[in-house]
Amino acid sequence: MTAESMLPAEKITLVAGLLADRVRQYDTTHDRRAAFAYTYYRLTKTLATGLDTGTPVFNDPPWVAELCETLASAYFDAMDGIDEWLAGRSGGSAAEVQPSDLPDSIPQPWRDVFAASSVRRSSAGSALWTGCSPVVTNC
Description:
Elements: H1 8-28, H2 34-53, H3 61-87, H4 108-118, H5 124-136
Helix pairs in contact: 1-2, 1-3, 2-5, 4-5
């Protein structure tokens, strides 16, 4: 089955599965990105269920699915960039970072979020809410 032939709810369910993979990855490694990834997963799973059941009713389900895929793609690209950067960094994810430490290939809002979540005094709640910013600004 190609992505073009999938129903909107199926497309979003696929995105939710990819987000669940990130949740497991981050949870296993005690990565502070887990809080946002879990919330993003739950929101996406709820959206897929809504599209599948028709409650709530969306006027343009294909557009909703496309937006979901676009935002998730930007998120996955940014997280992959951070993971690549962490893999080549001595000290891994344990040390505090500044946004300028991360490569320019990662969009600035995601660099800001990752740096803010690296601060030892940050909480899971702050990591969650800070993580929402790039999604809302569509980065």
